């Protein structure tokens, strides 16, 4: 393990934490940046396993809210419906993720051109949706009906294509189906917990025999930095979205997609 590898893991961990919960595609960013840094992880595990830091960032910021929901489950039908909605929304990605795991890791993760394309397309789509005169029917994530939760979960499966963005797909789908921006972003936070935890556990299981002590070290570095960066993003994102919408993220996606294509043209 070289110093360059350690520095790359540190940088990529920060990028993961900064981008996981905003609709710009954290996986697309770290795969594309890793390509230009010359960073290669065993079985592309680093890019998935450092998401545990982002999961813990949500748990840290939302611990009080999660604890209140857990305590209310036996007596509060609203809390039970909300938890059921998260589970329902999680299931499509869980099923497809298991069956398409090999294809995603060995084909889709290895195409920086695909990532640049999906970043660009996703930016244009997000910008279009952000400008639509939508009238929300749901303004609290706790009140989403199960049918809406399932539909949002189906939207999330599109994000298995790197560069699409898990949060972007869920938020865009939720907005088109009648939610407001703040509750859509918050539901995406909650849905991220089982989704990323499941991806972490399954990827660790699939690669348990090939990971080394060096792999564990760089994953730990990425985990810590993604956790710290993720806490800052989770704390401020909902207020930012309420004030500015999603257009800034759309423009950033387009910029990164174009920059990626330029870099690939000149640097390969």
Automatic annotation (TrEMBL):
<keyword id="KW-0133">Cell shape</keyword>
<protein>
    <recommendedName>
        <fullName>Undecaprenyl-diphosphatase</fullName>
        <ecNumber>3.6.1.27</ecNumber>
    </recommendedName>
</protein>
<keyword id="KW-0378">Hydrolase</keyword>
<keyword id="KW-0046">Antibiotic resistance</keyword>
<dbReference type="GO" id="GO:0050380">
    <property type="term" value="F:undecaprenyl-diphosphatase activity"/>
</dbReference>
<keyword id="KW-1133">Transmembrane helix</keyword>
<keyword id="KW-0573">Peptidoglycan synthesis</keyword>
<comment type="similarity">
    <text>Belongs to the UppP family.</text>
</comment>
<dbReference type="GO" id="GO:0008360">
    <property type="term" value="P:regulation of cell shape"/>
</dbReference>
<dbReference type="GO" id="GO:0005886">
    <property type="term" value="C:plasma membrane"/>
</dbReference>
<keyword id="KW-0961">Cell wall biogenesis/degradation</keyword>
<dbReference type="Pfam" id="PF02673">
    <property type="entry name" value="BacA"/>
</dbReference>
<feature type="transmembrane region" description="Helical">
    <location>
        <begin position="48"/>
        <end position="70"/>
    </location>
</feature>
<keyword id="KW-1003">Cell membrane</keyword>
<dbReference type="InterPro" id="IPR003824">
    <property type="entry name" value="UppP"/>
</dbReference>
<feature type="transmembrane region" description="Helical">
    <location>
        <begin position="184"/>
        <end position="205"/>
    </location>
</feature>
<dbReference type="GO" id="GO:0071555">
    <property type="term" value="P:cell wall organization"/>
</dbReference>
<feature type="transmembrane region" description="Helical">
    <location>
        <begin position="82"/>
        <end position="104"/>
    </location>
</feature>
<feature type="transmembrane region" description="Helical">
    <location>
        <begin position="217"/>
        <end position="238"/>
    </location>
</feature>
<dbReference type="GO" id="GO:0046677">
    <property type="term" value="P:response to antibiotic"/>
</dbReference>
<keyword id="KW-0997">Cell inner membrane</keyword>
<keyword id="KW-0472">Membrane</keyword>
<feature type="transmembrane region" description="Helical">
    <location>
        <begin position="250"/>
        <end position="267"/>
    </location>
</feature>
<feature type="transmembrane region" description="Helical">
    <location>
        <begin position="141"/>
        <end position="164"/>
    </location>
</feature>
<comment type="function">
    <text>Catalyzes the dephosphorylation of undecaprenyl diphosphate (UPP). Confers resistance to bacitracin.</text>
</comment>
<dbReference type="GO" id="GO:0009252">
    <property type="term" value="P:peptidoglycan biosynthetic process"/>
</dbReference>
<keyword id="KW-0812">Transmembrane</keyword>
């Amino acid at each position: 393990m070289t110093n360059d590898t350690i520095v790359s893991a540190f940088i990529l961990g920060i990028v993961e934490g900064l981008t996981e919960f905003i609709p710009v595609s954290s996986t697309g960013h770290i795969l594309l940046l890793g390509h230009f840094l010359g960073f290669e992880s065993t079985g592309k595990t680093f890019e998935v396993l450092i998401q545990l830091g982002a999961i813990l960032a949500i748990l840290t910021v939302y611990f009080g809210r999660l604890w209140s929901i857990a305590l209310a489950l036996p007596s509060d039908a609203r809390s039970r419906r909300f938890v059921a909605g998260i589970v329902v929304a999680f299931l499509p990605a869980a099923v497809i993720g298991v069956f398409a795991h090999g294809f995603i890791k060995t084909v889709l993760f290895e195409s920086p051109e695909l990532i640049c394309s999906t970043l660009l397309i996703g930016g244009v789509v997000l910008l279009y949706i952000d400008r639509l005169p939508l009238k929300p029917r749901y303004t609290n994530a706790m009140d989403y009906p199960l049918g809406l939760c399932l539909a949002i979960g189906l939207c999330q499966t599109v994000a298995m294509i790197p560069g699409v963005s898990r949060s972007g797909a869920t938020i865009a789908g939720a907005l088109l189906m009648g939610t407001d921006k703040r509750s859509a972003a918050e539901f995406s936070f909650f849905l991220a917990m089982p989704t990323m935890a499941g991806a972490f556990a399954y990827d660790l299981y699939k690669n348990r025999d090939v990971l080394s002590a060096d792999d564990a070290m760089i994953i730990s570095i990425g985990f810590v930095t993604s956790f710290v960066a993720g806490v800052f993003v989770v704390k401020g994102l909902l207020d930012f979205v309420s004030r500015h919408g999603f257009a800034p993220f759309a423009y950033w996606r387009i910029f990164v997609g174009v920059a990626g294509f330029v870099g690939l043209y000149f640097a390969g």
